[in-house]
Amino acid sequence: MHKYFTSVAIACIFSATAIAQAPQAPATNTQPISKSRILQVDSAVVTKHKVTIKGQVIPYTATAGCMPIWDNDGRPIAGVFYTYYERDDVTDRANRPLVISFNGGPGTPSVWMEIGYTGPRVLNVDSEGYPVQPYGIGENKNSILDVADIVYVDPVNTGYSRPVDKSTPGTKFFGVNADIKYLAEWINTFVTRKDRWASPKFLIGESYGTTRVSGLALELQNSQWMYLNGVVLVSPTDLGIQRSGPVSAALKLPYFAATAWYHGALSPELQKKELTDFLPEVEDFTINQLIPALSRGGFLDDAQKKDIAAKMSKYSGLSEKVILDNNLDVSYDLYWKELLRDKGFTIGRLDSRYKGIDRQTSGSSPDYNAELTAWLQSFTPAINIYLRNELNYKTDLKYNMFGDVWPWDNANDQTGENLRQAIAQNPYLHLLIQSGYYDGACDYFNAKYSLWQLDPSGRLKDRLKWEGYKSGHMIYLRKEELAVASENLRKFIQESIPKPGQAAKY
């Protein structure tokens, strides 16, 4: 269990706006570098840059800074760090989309999508997303900055964001509904200060960030009177949509199948199929045979049980014995340990393309997350280099890749229902879900299930869309998928903006 932070203060460094002109050199007219870990709550550093996207040179302004969270008496209780990218050669800002971006954890900042997916700079990794040296960043030719301005938001205790002092209870920030409430207030402040009320607005979240933005969609409508055009969920959580017992046990299998296919653990007959041609067969078996079989529990006929185990073995790459020993319900942990056990490897949780090596081959779960340690190796130096050297944000405060937000209150998670209500109430609002087939933390078939259950009436489904990618939790780390996912996101933004004169009505 993590302890709650009690001693660090507010996150921001400069008392006035500072401006730099070059993207890769610090400005000469900034305030002196802060030597303190106690920073100011309300400030910004502004720099000018260019990026080439789809062959077009895009000039833009980057703002790195903090804005406050206030209590009911108007006193600042925290500073929320953000980076804001605004295209310069735009004359009609009212029709220019604004994308508000969050990541997950819930204790991680927005670094992952900022320098991995949608921002104008992208970290240096190989074509499959593995770390390479020298660490750093380069131009992101796939950024969506050509079609939308973007703000990346770091919730309290992530990145440089901090509470003002230890007297502010963590319950103000650290919970499903507390998180949504204070971030909605912050978004209102941001949109007002940046004069973006007229702009079409989009929320994008990854991992726990999908819980966050699903709740924010309704909170912004009901409490801030701010209406969105789109919500994008990248590698979504369960959004509080219930699944348990046989359903929960069965829904894992398509992810197991995708992983086994990737590692060549299936029969030649299945391996020769394209992944996206193979998976519908597994999905059909899961819905129409596995869930009914698991529903019978210990009273399932022995012959049926053996038949189901044989099919699960065929699709998962595991032995029938392992499946039967676990009563047809193999845990994620055991799968990550078992699939390549005979080869001496474990596989990653967030991205099962990654392999790890444990102290011993026996056991029921991996020693560590092979994918996460690889990502931290490349992302951590890149974001520190970028913020300091290119955005000219200089501080001695540690940039929290994982901040202390515990205990986190998960009670009353109704975010899936909140999202449904927001879509139903706002005819302009569209939803896009993007999932990686090799993601075992927020697996693709559970994301599909959430989409199916989101609107029981079926009357909203023309505004709901799901997409799958041959990657893991961070779908964009494979460069091939980055290009496709970015283009799909670009199209979603453009298609979610109503035609001139098109009213929001049924």
UniProtKB/TrEMBL annotation:
InterPro entries (alphabetical): AB_hydrolase_fold (IPR029058), Peptidase_S10 (IPR001563)
Listed Gene3D superfamilies: alpha/beta hydrolase
A GO molecular-function annotation: serine-type carboxypeptidase activity
Parts of the chain that traverse the membrane: none
Name this protein carries in UniProt: Carboxypeptidase C (Cathepsin A)
Source organism superkingdom: Bacteria
Keywords in alphabetical order: Carboxypeptidase, Glycoprotein, Hydrolase, Protease, Signal
Organism encoding this protein: Mucilaginibacter mallensis
Range of residues in the leader sequence: 1-20
